[in-house]
Design goal:
heterodimer; A: 992 residues; five-stranded mixed beta sheet; 41 helices; elongated; B: 66 residues; 3 helices; 65% helix
């Protein structure tokens, strides 16, 4: 069975088009973000690890190295178990500082462009054999299927097609910083294709060749040497070395770093990937031994590296063969696309840009975009060149392992990045060069020498492993030993620069101080633009400043030093994502200089330190943990203090604004911190300013208006000594005591006292006036009865009327003065509606002529405990007032309801209302709006007294010209049935 | 993640899982089970157990420390 070359090429292109459509559909939102950002999608995208080596080469590797082939995947499992220790910190560093490749990360950590260049060059050298491996696998697979010698031009065509797709996938848009969700989904899809294809071939091998598990067992019983051949190499071969290499490759290979860190959207997906990705690898490798044995059983004509195709060919299953071929294309294309993208980014940042930075007149983004596209093409074509010069019979795995040993050389550098802040730039560079030289001599030169390149010179320089010795252990251990020894030794012999120390602290998060205790000399975002335009060009400068402002939620009016420093940091990070950390730092340092003499605001530092402590709390141990606990205790004490605390720094910025202060002022803690006193909202700005600037340590009973309410405060201040500079003033702490409630209570007390005095006075006056008035009335009656003179009788009658009025006033005064003493009389449950009705009847009698209608809306079931007579008095007084205020024909409404266990009664009229200035004094005796002959001003005070005696409350809402609403709240109210039931229940309880 | 009160943390479990996996696969102990006396799929079974252990640790973290 054979295939037409044209058909295969067509199938490959169609598959790649499908892949592109998936990426495009994701970017257009046709595939939901739930799918695109799902942990399984992310974990499958990491499956780019499995290349043609895994798809085809694992079978060949299993034939020569037995179960050693599994170590390439078990090592990855070990690395992903350590995700929280190893991968998560790297992800955070890459994300926080917008680092898009390992070269970016290591050049950032060691603050060295040289380190970036070396890492990039080494990555390139390590990747070429790997890319060549993919091309080799594809061309060989085509050769097997077509039974023809594959022309070189086909390999070139494959490379050109992949270049186009790589550009379409990852270098289509101007902004390289964006995550390529489309790429992630497409690579995840590729992983699924690989898995399905390999499993399909495996199932065919198991059931189609052996007839099932029983057949396989029988075959193994007959061929015990097949099983022995799997186990023997593990006992003799480089199992542990391969574990170490794959452990490193899991996150250091350019494509792995790109998918795991650069394209990661949510850190939590990494946690899930720590088991989903190894599970994917397990499933991918599950059928490898079965395929190997099936190839032996069928005596497949192909090399064991291509048994995946070979056994399907012998079975004459064209569809399965085509699926296996597509699986191989999938494995190769995923690796080449992602690797070329990752390497292009590295080359751009660390080789091209430092060597030839574009002129500011050139559109930077277009330049970067075309630079990246060109680099993708160059990298893939360089891999093709490597493929051309390779010895063709080189095993697929051998080529892949060369790359694995290359990337393992970054392990010491990563150790310094994550765990050893003392590691220096010199140590890293020396170690990398040492390890790289050993790698070149022991692996690269022998490979080239075997391919007939380099002639005598290369043969002389090559240091391959001695025959019979395991070449991988030899090369790996020697190169890592040299690398590690130089890294450690030189790091210990040299001192890290300030820059390196700062970067090491940033990576390990060991410092709590903000980086660069300085302020920016540029005074506005506009000035940022102008300065950056000199090097980035107008368009790029404008876009970068806009982007950074948008990221931080700031606007162009920002002038605050703290905000401008944040803006500078954000611009540096964004530029780092665009052109690498070193160049970004150089540009920002050159164009957005800082004033190193100026100190950062203390408020900023404190906030920065607190945020850092919150983020790194898990790292505290021993004394540090105890101190942190003490800090939290003090912080909590300060926070929960019932007095408002406001601490100001030496620059008068708010450092502390506790919970009580938040409640008193209504100003949010997060918003107030960092503001200067002048920036605080009114009236706090003036209040605190006057306290800080005044000579007095204590300000008592300061009256102010907060949100239209009168409030009273005591303010106490004390100077804080700067703990870092003894003797120098570090700021001021102000305690704010809210006296409003106390003040209100005092007013209430004074009011009550006034009422009591008036009551006592009234009682005395009533007693003293009562007797003479009675006498005058008697005399006037006598005079009236004894005379016939009509004028005298009229005068006598007037005297009698006036004495009656005096008597009424005196009676009211007596009633008012005795009001309190009546409160102790027993109260009983009264029906509210009856009381209101009785009062309304009484008032109607006296106000009937005025034709004011009293409407009662009171449920008859409402009952409450009260002195019935006094309650009627309350309603009589209120209704009298309401009727007096109303015009003839108006309506007075009495509305009652129950809320909880309180009865709420509203007496509403639509009369003339009361002036606002009178409202505060309306419960005082003799305050009235009625004319001199119509009101005594004692009605409402009596009501107030009676309601208070009943444990209730009264409030008045009135506006001149709009009527009055008096609201009574009386406790203990209920509905008649409930109350009865409760009483019965209470009685039974008492009896039992 | 709070290393206090002697409680087991996520990091502790991760280290336990790693040490167990390293013992099974990276120590000379792997020679004990890498023999024809065991079925050919024995390495896969052990590998699967390690993956399940990792998944359990992750789920534990999800329940206790998120």
């Amino acid at each position: 069975m054979s295939f037409e070359l044209g058909h295969l090429f067509f199938a490959a292109v169609v598959y790649l088009l499908v892949l592109f459509f998936i990426a495009y559909a994701t970017e257009q939102g046709w595939i939901s973000q739930r799918v695109a950002r799902h942990p399984v999608t992310y974990a499958l995208s990491l499956g780019v690890y499995a290349t043609s080596w895994s798809f085809y080469g694992s079978v060949g590797f299993a034939q020569t190295q037995g179960f050693n082939f599994l170590s390439i995947y078990v090592g990855v499992t070990l690395a992903f178990i350590l995700a929280p220790v190893l991968l998560a910190p790297m992800l955070r560093i890459a994300r926080d500082y917008q680092l898009t490749s390992l070269a970016d990360v290591l050049s950032f950590r060691y603050r060295s462009q040289t380190a970036g260049v070396l890492v990039t060059l080494f990555m390139l050298l390590g990747a070429f054999p790997y890319i060549a491996l993919q091309i080799l696998a594809v061309t060989e697979s085509v050769q097997i299927l077509t039974q023809e010698a594959t022309p070189q031009v086909l390999a070139l065509g494959f490379c050109v097609t992949l270049t186009l797709f790589a550009i379409l996938f990852g270098a289509r848009h101007i902004s390289p910083r964006d995550k390529h969700e489309g790429l992630v989904v497409a690579i995840a899809f590729e992983s699924m294709v690989k898995l399905v294809a390999l499993c399909a071939v495996g199932v065919f091998a198991l059931f189609g060749v052996f007839g099932g598990f029983g057949g396989l067992d029988d075959w193994l019983t007959v061929n015990p040497q097949a099983l022995e051949a799997l186990y023997r190499p593990v006992r003799e071969g480089p199992w542990t070395t391969l574990l170490l290499l794959s452990f490193c490759a899991a996150f250091l290979l350019p494509r792995q770093f790109h998918m795991a860190f650069t394209e990661n959207i949510d850190e939590r997906t990494l946690w899930s990937a720590s088991w989903i990705f190894p599970l994917f690898l397990l499933l991918l490798n599950l059928f490898i031994p079965v395929i190997l044995w099936a190839g032996s059983e069928l005596s497949a004509t192909t090399n064991a590296d291509f048994y995946v195709l070979g056994i399907t060919l012998s079975g004459e299953h064209r569809a399965l063969t085509a699926l296996a071929f597509i699986g191989g294309i999938s494995a190769a294309s995923a690796m080449m696309i992602v690797t070329s993208l990752a390497l292009a980014s590295m080359c751009l940042n660390h080789l091209l840009l430092p060597a030839s930075y574009p002129d500011p007149d050139v559109n930077l983004y277009k330049w970067l975009l075309w630079g990246r596209r060109t680099l993708i093409a160059v990298i893939i074509l360089a891999g093709y060149g490597f493929y051309l010069v390779l010895e063709r019979n080189q095993g697929l795995v051998q080529l892949g392992l060369i790359s694995f040993v290359a990337v393992a050389q970054f392990l010491p550098g990563v150790f310094g990045l994550l765990f050893w802040p003392r590691a220096t730039r010199a140590g890293f560079i020396t170690g990398l060069i040492g390890g790289g030289v050993v790698w070149t001599l022991t692996l690269l030169f022998p490979l080239l020498e075997h391919s007939g390149i380099g002639g005598e010179l290369l043969a002389m320089l090559s240091m391959p492993a001695e025959p019979g010795r395991d070449p991988w252990s030899y090369a790996t251990l020697t190169s890592l030993a040299v690398n590690g020894a130089l890294f450690l030794g030189v790091s210990l012999l040299t001192r890290p620069s300030d820059e390196e120390r700062e970067a090491a602290d940033a990576c390990s998060r060991t410092t709590l101080l903000p980086p660069g205790d300085t302020i920016v000399t540029a005074s506005s975002p506009e000035e940022f633009k102008e300065r950056l335009a000199l090097i980035l060009g107008d368009q790029a400068a404008s876009f970068e400043v806009d982007q950074a402002l948008a990221d931080l939620g700031m606007d162009y009016e920002q002038r605050d030093e703290r905000a401008l420093r944040q803006l500078r940091e954000r611009i540096e990070r964004n530029l780092s994502g665009l052109m690498g950390p070193m160049l970004a730092r150089m540009i920002v340092d050159e164009r957005l200089q800082t004033d190193s003499g100026a100190r950062t605001a203390l408020a900023d530092n404190i906030r920065f330190i607190e945020e850092r402590i919150e983020h790194s709390q898990m790292r505290f141990e021993g004394a540090a943990a105890e101190l942190d606990r003490l800090r939290r205790y003090h912080q909590q004490t300060l926070r929960d203090l019932p007095l408002g605390v406001c601490a100001l720094g030496p620059d008068r910025q708010v450092l502390t604004w506790n919970l009580a202060m938040e409640l008193i002022s209504g100003v949010d803690r997060g918003r107030s911190r960092g503001l200067t006193v002048e920036q605080l909202p009114a009236p706090w700005s003036e209040l605190i300013k006057s306290c800080v600037e005044g000579a007095d340590q204590h300000l008592h009973k300061i009256e102010t208006s907060v949100n239209g309410r009168r409030r009273w405060f005591n303010l106490h201040k004390a100077a804080i000594e700067d703990p870092t500079a003894p003797g120098e003033a570090g700021g001021v702490v102000i305690l704010v005591e809210d006296l409003t409630d106390l003040q209100n209570l005092e007013s209430e007390l004074a009011h009550s006292e006034r009422l009591a005095s008036i009551g006592r006075l009234a009682a005395g006056v009533a007693h003293e006036i009562g007797n003479p008035v009675t006498g005058i009335a008697c005399l006037a009656q006598n005079l009236e009865s004894e005379t016939e003179d009509s004028e005298v009788r009229a005068t006598s009658q007037q005297i009698i009327d006036q004495t009656k009025r005096i008597s009424e006033i005196v009676q009211t005064l007596v009633g008012f003065s005795h009001g309190g003493s009546l409160a102790s009389e027993p109260q009983q449950m009264v029906v509210l509606a009856e009381c209101v009705q009785e009062a309304a009847d009484l008032v109607s009698l006296s106000h009937g002529a005025r034709q004011v209608q009293i409407r009662i809306d009171c449920p008859p079931a409402i009952v409450l405990p009260a002195d019935r007579t006094r309650l009627i008095q309350v309603f009589v007084n209120l209704l009298t007032n309401a009727c007096d205020a109303s015009e003839p024909g108006d309506e007075v409404l009495v509305h009652a309801r129950i809320e909880g266990d309180e009865g709420i009664i509203d007496v509403i009229d639509h009369g003339e209302g009361m002036p606002e200035d009178l409202l505060d004094r309306v419960f005082e005796p003799f305050v009235t709006t009625k004319g001199p002959r119509h009101g005594t001003g004692l009605g409402l005070p009596v009501v107030y007294r009676i309601v208070q005696d009943h444990g209730g409350q009264i409030s008045i809402d009135s506006r001149a010209g709009h009527g009055t609403r008096v609201e009574l709240t009386l406790p203990g109210a209920g509905l008649a049935e409930e109350t009865t039931a409760a009483s019965v229940s209470a009685s039974r309880g008492a009896l039992s | 993640m709070r290393p206090r009160n002697g409680k087991v943390t996520y990091l502790d479990l991760v280290l336990v899982a790693f040490i167990l996996a390293a013992f099974l696969f990276a120590s000379p102990f792997h020679l004990v089970w890498m023999t024809p006396e065991f079925p050919w799929y024995a390495p896969y079974v052990l590998w699967f157990c390690v993956i399940v252990l990792t998944a359990i640790v992750q789920r534990w973290r999800g329940r206790n420390e998120l």
